[in-house]
């Protein structure tokens, strides 16, 4: 059975609430800001929002339900997507189907988190039952330790070097210098990257995302409504979502993309070679390499060679994470799972200013999240086009 | 009445001195040891109830526990099987006048220093009488050995070796002589027990307990300061706690002596 | 190899104890329950045989909820290693850098482990064990496949064990064969100093002269029934004791009907229960303050209890009751010592070959074997010790059916 297309669905109004390293506000503040921006930028009234999708780690004890009362919304379609780095893709594909089916006309997809001085530690300590039982008591390094294992294994298996990861980080920093919201505002050199202090061998400081507070959002609505509102929009060409793929793999060297990429490209009617840019989920550079491999830009284990062959700036041979990615923008909790999606919308609607990829027609944004125990469980990807 | 008023006047005037023959009750004071499978007398133990603290803001007090035969203590006739059926044989029923009597202090300190197993015999007693006169009836006969000077060193005080305890005491004939021929109130020692440490091997075992209590007489143990008493002329007051059917009790033993 | 620690500068501040993260799901405490006994158990599916990790409520393979904790060999291969230079937790921050490994167990699961320094790089064959950390919770530790001398000296491993090496020990009763065997075992295990209590010092005991000749030994008059004495001894040595072994006990072979009165039972309680209480009140605070005092911090409190603490042995009925009371109090002590990371180790021997078990038929546990088990438990980081075959059998019987054991003991 072939999958139904997302025909008639529009994705629009990329919103970013400027990030800060620490915030004394609650998650609700950040989500409200994002929603307010969506309404302002779309010329909609608040009551026009009849669908809401929420992603946040720090909203507890509230859920999306509580947030509706907090923000005075009365949606007829509501989703809570606590999927971490996969939140953007998952929120998009669900909202698209709701709009397509007529269950909602305008879905506001928002993701955001606050970051108090001690938020990150508390999030780590209670991230999941498996993490609390079998990871956090082991040095309490958080995902650093899990990705250290993964990175070390990847380096050993496929011959990647620190310079390979460094090349991505340096290129993304160059992209970030053209993105005003990025928290990192100074250029990064390869020497600085290599000389950074170790965090969890082989990971060093610039291999690790910096937790911060912020929010991201976009609207999903019908093309007709978007045209009526006179707002630029993009189309959803294909999506995939997969959880706990390849559970028998001893070390995570691939995720759901490897299982579903053919489905993704078949639905979109295009191939990897047709992408004008790629937004990967990049909490650590090794996971970007894995996505490039699994999404078919190169073969498994060819990531290092691929990195050495390309440049990754917005004007380079393979534009990647054109706003700087989380590694240079910051990781605002669940908003990190929206960062690539929001940037993809900006690129495809010509709103990427000085980092605009020339003549961008199609791009892929992928997501990855929830290090439940020893690996990321949720993965997904979406191809957007204009 | 004059006698008692004169007594208190003399006391106030310092003409009568009060000597304390009692050791301080404390947990570390040596206590009697029996074979471990037998019942054991509790050593003296003390626990604070409050000390001007949350357990009692304005007051300090303790709970203490001990056996009847702890520290400087009194043995009643009922303590021994030979005295079990006598009338007035327990600390609560002993006529109180029996707690007071003249003291005869037999100085055995030189002998005990040479021989910890020293046994006081009848000959020693007759020699004492030759020098100080006949032991009067209803007297407290106190055997001075200076053993109390060892009390700060529990090991020396108990004086154990692989054959048991070695402390001085009376022999069988001496006890029988004092009871049958001198009608004394009781016998007192400075060591643990009115009998010698090795008295288990005498006939009968523990003769002082056997005959003294069998005749309704009393014992005083773990006395101190006997070296400050004259051979004769002092009066001992040794009133035990009034414990119903008690076999003995720790007590304060006082000696009164006139300053000439 | 571990160096003898330098003498402590007594005017410097002593670091306050911190604990590694202690929160666990209830099902994960199955790992702790086994580790407390020195075992490495994982859940295995009764229906399909799949071994599970992390602990869970249902089989990841067939969804069966019949997951049984089964002993594991722990063999596996280290597939990746890392050294943490950063931690979000105070305990680890103070101990960085910290080595971790990621191991594929031969039985299937992938496990995150604390990694012994002798395992240099991956891949490598390793043996994984479950050990209790300072918070008293089970963690997995990978050690080299083959035992080597001084393996216990690993800096990280010492955070999980209570190794007597270079530590100061307090044995509360040196008058018994057990007490003297404990001293010999601690000397052999590299203890730095051993204080040895002895009650009723006027009764010279067999072995006194030999004890006095041991250069590590200092004899102390100690009577656990005397609060003042306990307070004074604790004041004298409490600030230095790293490991307490409370082996002082009063044991008489009586039940209820064959001993008149309560004196004997009370004497047993006074030593076995109140003695522990006095010692804990006087020595506990000082030990708690030294839970993180460098390489040779205060680490363990050992109680010599009895298997009869679990089920009464009527011929020694009042003794059994006193040990049950002591066991209960030891659980309280364990809770109160845990914030300092000081482990309370409870030892449950079967009948020991001593004078009070004279009439019990063999097998009886030799004092030397019991002493060796105590030291091994400290070296292995075990919390509940059932030394020897007899105690192991008792434990199995008790766990299998406590009521049946009650009937058997009263037969």
Strand content of chain A: 15-25%
Average pLDDT of chain C, to the nearest integer? 95
- The rounded distance between the terminal residues' Cα atoms of chain A is 26 Å
Question: Whole-Å distance between the termini of chain C?
Answer: 53 Å
Q: Which protein chains are joined by the largest interface, and how many residues does each one contribute?
A: A-C, 39 and 38 residues
- Overall geometry of chain A: globular
How many E-type strands of chain C? Answer: 15
The rounded Rg of chain A comes to 19 Å
Biggest beta sheet attributes of chain C: 7 strands, parallel
Structural class of chain A: alpha/beta
Largest sheet of chain A: 9 strands, mixed
Q: What portion of the residues of chain C fall into strands of 2 or more residues? A: 15-25%
Number of strands of chain A: 11
How does the helix and strand content of chain C classify structurally? Answer: alpha/beta
Helix content of chain C: 25-40%
Key features of this structure:
heterotrimer; A: 386 residues; alpha/beta; nine-stranded mixed beta sheet; 14 helices; 11 strands; 37% helix; B: alpha/beta; 15 strands; globular
Task: Explain what you see.
The complex is a heterotrimer of chains A (about 375), B (about 260) and C (about 400). Chain A is an alpha/beta fold and about 375 residues long. Chain A is about 35% helix and about 20% strand. In chain A, the strands form 2 sheets. In chain A, strands 3-2-4-7-1-8-11-10-9 form a 9-stranded mixed β-sheet, with helices on both faces. In chain A, strands 5-6 form a two-stranded antiparallel ribbon. The two termini of chain B are about 25 Å apart. Chain C has 11 helices and 15 strands. In chain C, the strands form 3 sheets. Chain C has a 7-stranded parallel β-sheet, sandwiched between helices. In chain C, strands 4-5-6-8-7 form a 5-stranded mixed β-barrel. Chain C is globular and about 65 Å long. The model of chain C has no long low-confidence stretch (mean pLDDT about 95). Classes of the chains: A alpha/beta (about 375), B alpha/beta (about 260), C alpha/beta (about 400). At the A-C interface, α4, α5, α6 and β5 of A face β4, β5 and β6 of C.
């Amino acid at each position: 059975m072939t999958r139904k297309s997302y025909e008639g669905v529009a994705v629009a109004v990329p919103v970013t609430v400027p990030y800060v390293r620490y915030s004394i506000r609650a998650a609700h503040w950040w989500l409200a800001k994002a929603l307010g921006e969506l309404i302002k930028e779309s010329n909609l009234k608040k009551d026009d929002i009849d669908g809401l999708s929420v992603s946040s780690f720090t909203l507890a004890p509230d859920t999306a339900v509580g947030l509706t009362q907090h923000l005075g919304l009365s949606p007829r379609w509501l989703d809570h997507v606590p999927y971490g780095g996969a939140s953007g893709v998952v929120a998009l594909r669900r909202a698209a189907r709701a709009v397509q089916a007529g269950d909602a006309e305008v879905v506001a997809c928002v993701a955001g988190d606050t970051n108090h001085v001690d938020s990150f530690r508390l999030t780590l300590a209670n991230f999941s039952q498996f993490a609390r039982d079998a990871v956090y008591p082991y040095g309490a390094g958080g995902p650093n330790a899990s990705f250290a294992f993964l990175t070390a294994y990847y380096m050993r298996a496929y011959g990647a070097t620190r310079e390979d990861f460094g090349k991505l980080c340096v290129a993304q920093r160059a992209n970030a210098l053209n993105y005003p919201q990025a928290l990192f505002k100074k250029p990064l050199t390869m020497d600085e990257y290599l000389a950074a202090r170790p965090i969890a061998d082989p990971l060093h400081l610039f291999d690790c995302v910096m937790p911060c507070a912020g929010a991201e959002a976009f609207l999903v609505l019908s093309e007709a409504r978007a045209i009526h509102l006179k707002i630029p929009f993009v189309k959803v060409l294909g999506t995939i979502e997969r959880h706990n793929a390849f559970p028998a793999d001893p070390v995570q060297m691939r995720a759901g993309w490897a299982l579903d990429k053919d489905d993704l490209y078949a639905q979109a009617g295009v191939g990897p070679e047709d992408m004008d840019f790629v937004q990967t989920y990049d909490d650590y550079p090794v996971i970007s390499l894995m996505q490039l491999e699994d999404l078919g830009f190169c073969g498994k284990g060819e990531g290092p060679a691929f990195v050495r062959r390309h440049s990754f700036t917005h004007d380079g041979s393979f534009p990647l994470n054109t706003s700087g990615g989380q590694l240079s923008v910051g990781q605002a909790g669940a908003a990190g799972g929206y960062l690539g999606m929001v940037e993809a919308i900006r690129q495809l609607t010509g709103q990427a200013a000085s980092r605009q990829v020339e003549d961008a027609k199609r791009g892929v944004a992928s997501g990855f999240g929830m290090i439940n125990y020893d690996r990321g469980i949720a993965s997904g990807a979406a191809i957007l086009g204009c | 009445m004059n006698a008692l008023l004169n007594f208190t006047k003399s006391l106030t005037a310092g003409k009568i001195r009060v000597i304390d023959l009692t050791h301080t009750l404390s947990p570390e004071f040596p206590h009697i040891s029996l074979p471990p499978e037998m019942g054991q007398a509790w050593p003296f133990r003390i626990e604070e109830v409050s000390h001007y603290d949350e357990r009692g803001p304005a007051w300090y007090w303790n709970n203490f526990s001990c056996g009847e035969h702890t520290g400087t203590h009194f043995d009643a006739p009922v303590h021994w099987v030979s005295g079990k059926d006598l009338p007035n044989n327990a600390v609560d029923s002993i006529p109180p006048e029996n707690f007071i009597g003249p003291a005869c202090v037999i100085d055995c300190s030189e002998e005990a220093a040479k021989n910890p197993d020293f046994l006081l015999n009848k000959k020693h007693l007759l020699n004492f009488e030759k020098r100080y006169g006949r032991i009067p009836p209803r007297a407290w006969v106190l055997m001075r050995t200076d053993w109390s000077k060892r009390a700060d060193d529990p090991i020396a005080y108990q004086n154990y070796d692989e054959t048991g305890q070695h402390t001085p005491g009376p022999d069988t004939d001496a006890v029988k002589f004092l009871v049958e021929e001198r009608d004394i109130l009781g016998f007192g020692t400075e060591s643990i027990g009115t009998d010698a440490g090795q008295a288990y091997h005498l006939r009968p075992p523990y003769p002082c307990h056997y005959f003294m209590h069998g005749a309704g007489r009393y014992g005083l143990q773990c006395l101190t300061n006997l070296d400050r008493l004259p051979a004769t002329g002092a009066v001992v007051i040794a009133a035990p706690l009034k414990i119903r059917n008690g076999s003995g009790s720790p007590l304060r033993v006082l000696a009164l002596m006139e300053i000439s | 190899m571990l160096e003898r620690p330098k003498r402590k500068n007594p005017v410097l501040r002593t670091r306050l104890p911190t604990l590694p993260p202690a929160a666990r799901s209830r099902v994960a405490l199955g790992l702790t329950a086994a580790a407390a006994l020195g075992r490495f158990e994982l859940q295995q599916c009764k229906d399909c045989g799949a071994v599970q990790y992390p602990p869970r409520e249902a089989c990841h393979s067939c969804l069966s909820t019949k997951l049984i904790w089964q002993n594991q060999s722990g063999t596996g291969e280290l597939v990746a290693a890392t050294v943490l230079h950063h931690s979000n937790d105070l305990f680890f921050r103070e101990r960085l850098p910290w080595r971790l490994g990621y191991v594929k167990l031969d039985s299937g699961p992938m496990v995150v482990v604390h990694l012994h320094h002798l395992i240099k790089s991956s891949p490598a064959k390793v043996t994984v064990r479950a050990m209790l950390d300072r918070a008293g919770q089970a963690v997995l530790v990978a050690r080299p496949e083959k035992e080597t001398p001084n393996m216990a000296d690993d800096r990280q491993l010492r955070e999980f064990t209570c190794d007597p090496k270079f530590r100061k020990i307090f044995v509360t009763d040196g008058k018994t064969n057990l007490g003297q065997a404990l001293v010999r075992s601690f000397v052999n295990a590299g203890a730095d100093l051993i204080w040895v209590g002895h009650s009723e010092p006027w009764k010279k005991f067999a072995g006194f002269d030999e004890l006095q000749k041991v250069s590590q030994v200092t004899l102390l008059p100690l009577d656990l029934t005397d609060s003042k004495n306990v307070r004074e001894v604790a004041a004298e040595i409490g600030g230095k004791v790293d490991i307490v072994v409370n082996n002082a006990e009063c044991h008489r072979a009586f039940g209820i009907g064959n001993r008149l009165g309560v004196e004997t039972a009370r004497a047993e309680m006074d030593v076995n229960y109140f003695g522990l209480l006095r010692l804990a009140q006087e020595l506990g605070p000082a030990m708690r303050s030294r839970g993180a005092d460098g390489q040779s911090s205060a680490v363990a409190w050992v109680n010599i209890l009895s298997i009869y603490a679990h089920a009464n042995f009527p011929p020694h009925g009042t003794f059994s009751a006193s040990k049950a009371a002591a066991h209960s109090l030891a659980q309280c002590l364990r809770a109160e010592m845990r914030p300092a990371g000081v482990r309370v180790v409870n030892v449950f021997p079967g009948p020991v070959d001593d004078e009070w078990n004279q009439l019990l038929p063999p097998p009886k546990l030799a004092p030397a074997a019991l002493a060796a088990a105590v030291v091994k438990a400290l070296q292995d980081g075990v919390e509940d010790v059932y030394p020897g075959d007899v105690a192991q059998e008792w434990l199995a019987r008790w766990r299998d059916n406590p009521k049946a054991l009650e009937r058997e003991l009263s037969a």
